[in-house]
Design goal:
By secondary structure, this protein is an all-alpha fold. It is 70% helix and 0% strand.
Length: 168
């Protein structure tokens, strides 16, 4: 006697949501071609240069360089984090967060603290401290000011973006 086989399939809401969410994950290559994207990559590359130039010295003997290291590493990590958020378009998946305000606050605080750190870095570099660290500290000071100007540019673009959102 022949057997009848009936197969019943069910789909859970978890599986449906998982497949729908993974299909909307995007990668925005065009972000790196925008001025804020270029500035962000420049901040990452030159920020890395700032803290590696200082980290290769005996900076821990001078508290001023400890402050510069804190600011440089802290904002380097956060900038990498924000680059990943913008590249993967994660901000579109979390609409509850006011991303334009977050970007403005982040870039504004990075500009102010990096400016203070660059001034502290430049004023702490003297030949009297330690001759073999002089070149690294002087170079880190120069690049800290360049990174500061990048954050100033991104603060401007963040302000323009925030302003256009609040006018709507």
């Amino acid at each position: 006697r022949p057997r009848s086989h009936t197969v019943t399939t069910t789909s859970s809401s978890f599986t449906a949501n998982l497949s729908a969410s993974s299909s909307t994950l995007a990668y925005d290559r065009e972000f790196l071609r925008t001025v804020p994207g270029i500035l962000m990559v420049t901040e990452i590359v030159l920020g890395l240069l700032v803290w590696t130039l200082i980290a290769g010295t005996e900076y821990f003997l001078y508290p001023a360089f400890g402050w510069v290291m804190f600011v440089a590493v802290f904002y380097w990590v956060l900038t990498v984090f924000f680059l990943i958020i913008y590249m993967t378009m994660t901000y579109t998946r979390i609409p509850q967060v006011p991303w334009t305000m977050v970007g403005l606050c982040f870039n504004g605080s990075a500009f102010v603290l990096y400016l203070i750190a660059a001034i502290v870095d430049a004023s702490s570099v003297t030949k009297d401290l330690d001759n073999h660290n002089y070149n690294s500290w002087a170079a880190s000071s120069f690049f800290a000011f360049v990174v500061t100007s990048c954050y100033a540019g991104n603060t401007y673009f963040s302000f323009i973006s925030w302003r256009s959102r609040t006018l709507q």
